[in-house]
Write a structure and sequence with these properties.
three-stranded mixed beta sheet
Amino acid sequence: MDPIPGCTEGSLLTYANKLAAQLTPLENKAFAALSALSQLYVQGVASDKSPQVFGTDGQYGPRATATIDKLRGFWDIESWNIQLVAWKGTDLGSQAKMAQTFSLGLAPAKVKAAAALTTQVLFELPALQGGRNPLLTLNAFSAPADSLGGKRVALGDGLLDVVNTLGFDDVSVEAVVGHEYGHQVDFAHDNYPPNESSEMGPDAYGGYFVAHAKGFGWTSRLQQEVTYLDASIGDCFHSHGTPEQRKAAGAWGEKQATGQGNPNRVVPSATMIDKFQKEYPKLMPPAGDQSAAATLAAAHR
């Protein structure tokens, strides 16, 4: 798919692409394989019944716990069984954890050797930094009830590291978890839109949460920082929404909180979904505008 004319990808994507460009072909293959394994572990094996360490050195634990606790009480969806789990590249260094992961689909006789090979690659390839290279876990995701491991939000150490590097540490954990929990809001109502609103909707719900008096009640400065973080993960391929679209969705959600008559009322989640779906077309450029932009871009080649 061709990129959207005139669009510049978000700063987080640009930073991630620069990191990836420094890898050799062999390192790229190792990163792809080990990142997938770490994701499989955090989705199918990890559990919040054991202590979770959020951040490479556990520095985000209190903020992560406070955020998920607030979210569970904020939105009117079944929340007791939504786990918040830490996605850590260093888990790749545990042969016990990797054996659990390989046991999900590998023949039992091969599990021990596969786990040993994983840890060997992790510690023998310097670029992997023993699991601390942010590329291994430069993401967060939300999984529905019928997925492997059940309902959960996974928060990647690498994502938090990069967000901090880009200057968004003030709002990182709360904004990212608020967005991912927004997917749980959609899942609870069987809302799986086949367009960019699948990501922009959670931006809006997350914005509503951080700005709302019953959420974090953040100041306008912090609210603006969240929208810039939303923009940093915008793309240019009609996938997750452009930076400007992501920013606008988050700002719309924040405005729903700061502009409502009763600051303590939380709009029902089903209502919020409906309201955003009505707003969504206004955030997307008409097809004619895109065609005009494409023509203009072609004329300047």
